[in-house]
Structure formats: structure tokens, C-alpha cells
Amino acid sequence: MSLGAIDVALTAIGRLARTRNASLRRQRVARVALDDMSVQVLGAIARLGPIRLGQVSVLVELEVSQLSKKVRRLVDEGLASQRIDPAERRACLLEVTASGRRALARYRAAADDILAQAFAGWSDEELQHASEIVGRIAATFQAVDSFGVRAGGR
């Protein structure tokens, strides 16, 4: 397979994973009425919270003005909480609530169920091989920064 074919396959996977139908299916199965970006924001807060809004903005690559709307909805729905940062009283810290953690767990379980259905016809060996290859691809992309330069300058 050529690099062009790999690029086409990765593009197709990314496009399919981000379709509105795929997002709505994950929401329906998880019983979580959050768009993919809101789930990503909630996940970032869960992993690293308490965390400031600006830090979340960098992690999810979303402008603070857009992110503020997402966070406000998460707070209003009781999935996240916001409090004054004691170290910098002009800033706020975000944390995920117990309800938010449960929503994330349902979303993750739904995504896992959908994947299990998609790969139901694959053998354990095929799944193991695919996991190794996809993991290697992900590691390769992580090693390349936004300028297409490998860590270490190559």
C-alpha cells in the first residue's frame, strides 16, 4: 500500500468518525446529549482538572470565546463545575462533577459498543494486528509536530 492509499484510508476513517450521523449515534447509545466537541472538552477537564479555561482552550484547540459557550452549557447541565482559582482570584478553575464522569463513562462505553459491532467479523488475531498498526500510526503522528518535523529535528 502506498502512502497515498494510507492517506486516503485515514481521511475516510476520520471523515466517517466525525459525521453528524456517527455523533448522533454515539449520543443516542450513550444517552448523552452532547456534541463531540463538548465531550472532548468534558474529557479534557476530567483528565486534568481542576484546570483553567485557557488551558482547556489550548488542549482542545478551540478559541476561548467558543469554548466559554461549551463550558457554560456543561456547567448549566451539572456536568462540570466552576470556581474561583485561589491562586489567581481573577481566574476560574473547571472540574467535572460526578454526573459528568458518569456521562463520560456512558459515552466511552457507547463508543466501545459501536466499535465492537463494527469489528464483530474480525478474528482476535486481526484485531490485535490492527491495534498494533493503528497504535504505531498514532505514535508516528504524535512524534510529528504541526510543522511536519519529527521530534529531534528530522
Portion in helices: 55-70%
Q: How large is the count of helical segments? A: 7
* Gyration radius, in Å: 18 Å
Decide which structural class fits the backbone. mainly alpha
Question: How many beta-strand runs?
Answer: 3
Calculate the terminal CA-CA distance, rounded to whole Å: 24 Å
Low-confidence stretches: none
The name CATH uses for the topology is Arc Repressor Mutant, subunit A
The CATH homologous superfamily: Winged helix-like DNA-binding domain superfamily/Winged helix DNA-binding domain
With strands numbered from the N-terminus, the spatial order across the biggest sheet is 1-3-2
- State which percent range the strand residues make up: 5-15%
Domain tally: 1
Average the pLDDT over all residues and give the rounded result: 89
Overall, the morphology is globular
Short description:
This protein is mostly helical and 154 residues long. Helix content is 66%, strand content 11%.
Keywords:
154 residues; Arc Repressor Mutant, subunit A; 7 helices; 3 strands
Task: Record the SSE blueprint.
Elements: H1 3-17, H2 20-30, H3 36-48, E1 51-52, H4 53-60, H5 64-76, E2 80-85, E3 88-96, H6 98-118, H7 124-143
Antiparallel strand pairs: 1-3, 2-3
Can you put this structure into words, describing what you see?
The chain is 66% helix and 11% strand. By secondary structure, it is mainly α. It has a single domain (3-142), classed as Orthogonal Bundle (Arc Repressor Mutant, subunit A). The protein has a three-stranded antiparallel sheet with strand order 1-3-2. Helix 3 packs across helix 5 and helix 3 (36-48) packs across helix 6.
